[in-house]
TrEMBL record:
This is LacI family DNA-binding transcriptional regulator. It comes from the Bacteria. The keyword Cell cycle does not apply. SMART domains: HTH_LACI (SM00354). Residues 8-63 form the HTH lacI-type domain. GO terms for molecular function: DNA binding. Keywords: DNA-binding, Transcription, Transcription regulation. It comes from Nocardioides zeicaulis.
């Protein structure tokens, strides 16, 4: 092998270690025990040759697998504008990559769903339906759904939307806010659960409007609402990106946050557009991704996987404060 540019093979490792090809294979696969001294000799030979292990794609194909897990994320252009997306993908890639599997990002109606995927993770992203669902179930493809309905034949991974929103609402009530409004996501299970949590405390909650987790869209929705000279002294948004847009729009109109209007969000992501920390419900985004990926791996192996609901946590920042005294303002 000296001076050769050829990629070392398992056969080269076996020859260098002085063992049979089957023994070298078993050292890497772990399917059967190998004597420790033999194992160390094989691994030392592999290290000396620069051999990185069996090709996972070839192994998967021999097992009737593609070595790829699909992740349906809605519209790809919108997904990458949401700062909650990248840590989710990173966490999935961490788990799947360690298992030798690749990750394929798919749009809602992407024909990739018809490929021979080992499993599919569906990131609900504010949707209640998905076109390829029936076809994937009919083909027996393992499905994991993130923050979505517990569809038959799937494992779902969710967070405490309702509890987190209710805790946020109680925080605002404690600050003296009697009138609260909300900007929601598009109709979906997360949207309904977060709104229901707020209504546990504010039965007369005002719904300002709905939009994607997008800065410009949120500014437009909040701007139209502020044009109506609303009575609400606090605005709860269903994402931190929406909340950042609300803060920017309120300030553009000369309003103080939180002096004139308290603003809160949901997610716990970085908001580089702001010079203050948002009050928000922090969800475990990375753990959600790892949990979904681990569930997909288990289902690929034919294991039964229970649904998972992950906890959230209220984080109080500088965007919420005591309700302004309306009588002092002549209101």
């Amino acid at each position: 092998m000296s001076g050769s540019t050829r990629t070392p093979t398992l056969a080269d490792v076996a020859e260098t270690a002085g063992v049979s090809l089957s023994t070298a294979s078993l050292t890497f696969s772990g399917n059967k025990p190998v004597a420790e001294a033999t194992r160390e000799r094989v691994l030392a030979a592999a290290a000396a040759l620069g051999y990185r292990g069996p090709n996972p794609l070839a192994r998967n194909l021999r097992q009737g697998r593609s070595g790829v897990v699909g992740v349906a994320v809605g519209q790809l252009s919108e997904a990458f504008r949401d700062p909650a997306t990248l840590p989710l993908f990173d966490a999935m890639s961490e788990v799947l990559g360690a298992a030798g599997l690749g990750l394929l990002l798919m749009a809602d109606d992407d024909g990739h769903a018809r490929l021979p995927l080992d499993a599919v993770i569906f990131d609900i992203c504010g949707r209640d339906v998905w076109m390829p669902y029936d076809d994937l179930v009919a083909r027996g493809v393992p499905l994991v759904v993130i923050e979505g309905p517990a569809w038959p034949g799937t494992t779902y991974v969710d967070i405490e939307h309702r509890r987190g929103s209710a805790e946020l609402a109680r925080h605002l009530r404690g600050l003296g806010h009697d009138r609260v409004a909300t900007v929601t996501l598009e109709p979906s299970q997360p949207q309904r659960e977060r709104e229901a949590g707020l209504r546990e405390v504010y039965a007369d909650l005002e719904v300002v409007g709905a939009c994607a987790s997008d800065l410009t869209a949120a500014q437009e929705v909040v701007g139209a609402w502020l044009d109506t000279d609303p009575d609400a002294t606090a605005l709860v948004c269903q994402s931190d990106v929406q909340a950042a847009g609300a803060v920017l729009e309120a300030r553009r109109r000369g309003l103080s946050v939180p002096g004139d209007l308290s603003v809160a969000g949901f997610d716990g992501v970085a908001t580089p557009w702001l010079d203050l920390e948002l009050t928000t419900v922090v969800q475990p985004i990375a753990e959600k991704g790892r949990t979904a990926a681990r569930a997909a791996l288990a289902r690929i192996e034919g294991e039964a996987v229970a649904d998972v609901v992950l906890p959230v946590e209220l984080r109080v920042g500088g965007s919420t404060g005591p309700a302004p005294r309306r009588d002092a303002q002549g209101g």
